[in-house]
Amino acid sequence: VLDVKFTDIDYKVFSDAAGHVLKGNSPYDRHTYRYTPIVAWLLIPNHILFYGFGKLVFVSFDVLAGWIMYKILSIQDVPEVTKMICCVFWLLNPLTAVVSSRGNA
After folding, report:
1. Tell me, what's the pLDDT at 3?
2. Who's near 90: CB < 8 A, 6+ residues apart?
3. Which SS3 state, helix, strand or coil, does residue 51 take?
4. Which of 35, 41, 73, 92 has CB 3.0 to 4.6 Å from 78, enough for a Cys bridge?
5. C-alpha atoms less than 13 angstroms from C-alpha of 22 in its C-beta half-sphere
């Protein structure tokens, strides 16, 4: 059986930086952390609730992006079928789904 990990190394860096923030330190105390501190703050529940919490946050932002896309297209009077096709291509895009669920912000 192949042991393929479905968590990206960046997710581990994000989560480790969140641990530093939880202890009252800077996320940049993690020597390879070079991202916005907001990501570290968003992933603090990884240490309180469960390790995969951040992945749910990233996936939720993808769903939010689909909803915002729909709203923007509605403001521009785009036909309903076109709005749905655009949103489906975003929400069901395998690349989008894999990037978020692996933990790439």
Report:
1. 62
2. 62, 65, 66, 69, 96
3. coil
4. 73
5. 14
Alpha carbon distance 62, 72 (integer Å): 15
- The one-letter amino acid code at 95 reads L
DSSP 25: S
Read off the DSSP letter of residue 76. Answer: T
Average pLDDT over residues 32-60: 91
Half-sphere exposure (Cβ direction) of 36: Cα atoms closer than 13 Å:
4
34 and 43 in contact (C-beta within 8 Å)?
no
What is the Cα–Cα distance from 17 to 14, expressed in whole angstroms?
Answer: 5
Average pLDDT, rounded, for the chain: 88
For the entire predicted model, the pTM comes to 0.79
Q: How far is CA 41 from CA 20, 73, 79, 104, in A?
A: 10, 32, 39, 15
